[in-house]
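sorry for the late reply, my laptop died twice this morning and i had to redo everyting from scratch. anyway the thing you sent over, i finally got around to it. pasting the sequence first so we're on the same page, its 587 residues, then the predicted structure underneath. double check i copied it right bc i was rushing
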Amino acid sequence: MLQKSLSKKLLTNVLSVYFLLTFVVTCGQVVAEYVNTKDYIRNELTMLQKTFSRSLTRAIWELNTKQTVTTAEGLLAIPMIEGIIVRDDSGEIISQLGRSLDIHELYSQQLVQEEAIIEDTPSGLFGYTFPLIFEFSGRATQVGDVTLFSSREVVFSRIMISIYFLIGNAMIKTTFLIILFLIAFRKLLTEPLSQLTEQIEDFELDNVEGHRIELDTTERNELKVMEEAFNKLIDKIAEYRKKLDQTQKELIISNEKLDQHNLQLEQEVARKTSNLSQAMMDLQQQKYELEKQKLTLTEEIDRRRQTEQELLTKQKELERYLDELNLAQERLVGSEKMAALGGLVAGITHDINTPVGIGVTATSFLQERLEQIEAAYKEKTLSPKALEEFIHDAKQSTSLLTTNLDRASELVASFKQIAVDQASEAVRTINFKEYLGEVIKSLHPKLKKTKHQINVSCPDDLILNLPAGAISQIFTNLIMNSLIHGFEETNLGTIDIAITQDNDDVRIIYKDNGKGVSKAQLEKLFDPFFTTKRDQGGSGLGTHITLNLVKQTLNGDIEVESEEGKGLTYYIRFPKDMQHQAMEMFS
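ok and here's the structure:
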């Protein structure tokens, strides 16, 4: 029995889509009508401003409150106006009629200086505010402002007829469409499907060829195609029945042959059973041997498990020793950094003592001369010449004080930045040439006792954004290695530092003309704790720290080449902007 009609379901889906579209379009037309009517009311409010602003302005200017209230009441009588607020030049309300909002929440106590629109509020009000300008003797003076209010109720009252028309039009169209669809679906789908169903229900397998179906339609549509397909299926069933009868006859003959083959097969099975018994005995023997091998393998597995457990224990011990070794290495690196910082402090302290000592001497001399002048003044023996000599001496002393204090301040500032950078890995922006100059300046106490020269070739506008402390430690380690190891046998050493830009990278060639290192020493140069000055206190961490700073902190590369007697050269590359590179990696 038919549970769900396909035609009804199809009709329901089509009409549902049509109802939805009709509802959406009608709602859109209502919203458009509402927006257009609201804009029209706002334009009418603007026109009212041009009509009544002059009379309101003169009434407020002449302090005629009664006329102001009368004009406001006249405006309120206009159907589209729900409320009105009139304020004077001090922001006080002269007249407030009808429905309105709190004007102080909108504009506080200040007058509006130009026309303003008040958007829809939860209460349904919207409005328009304009200033009242009075022109007198060619001068314009604002005497107050006016706010006119309208509401959604006014808009709806104007568009109600249009809404009724739109809804009625949609209902008429929908009713006509439903009737049209019902007639079309009944004639084209429901009745042909009923005929097809009745003829298929009368189908009998005993008389296949006498149950061909025929539909009362001349159109070649889907139902006609279904009729032809069903009739072709009946023809194929009749043909298959004929083939089935023939096959049954062949099957009877095949069964007779199969009985003969079964007899032969029973004889063959008996023979095979005898052979199988012998094979079972052989398999039993093999099973016994396999069990012996299994026992042997079990013992071997137990022995290997014990060995594996011992190896795991050794591995844990090795991991613990490795952690202790890494901790010791970190402590040594920290000690190396603090030692370098201590050397920097000692050197800078000596350099600061010189300008400070000169400043103390100049201060003492100036104090002594001041006491002499004070004594001569009290004894009234102060002569113009003595005063002139004091002024001359005071100028020289203050000039000397200023020069040396500035020098000390520069040394302290340079030391402070280099010291902070060496103790920190914070990323900051630096001018490479200027910062390298500060690093070299911090090493002045080590360089001034020698005749060694440092030549720097670097673009003036090369800006880097990276951990400045790494740059300071790298060049401090390289320069100190050249001074201690490379220039051990010469007093006229030269260090050449060439810095160039390569797209987003910085390339550095650091070269000295020292004694160089052998091939064996070059292979171990970056190894931790490798040093040729072990007996003189060398830690062997300088080049290792430099390698870690370049590769890990700056994400760069470092290579070295050297020959004995021909100096040593480092090739260093790292990105200019560490922050930009990090952003690209995480994007």
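The chain has twelve helices and twelve strands.
thats about all i looked at so far, will dig more tmrw
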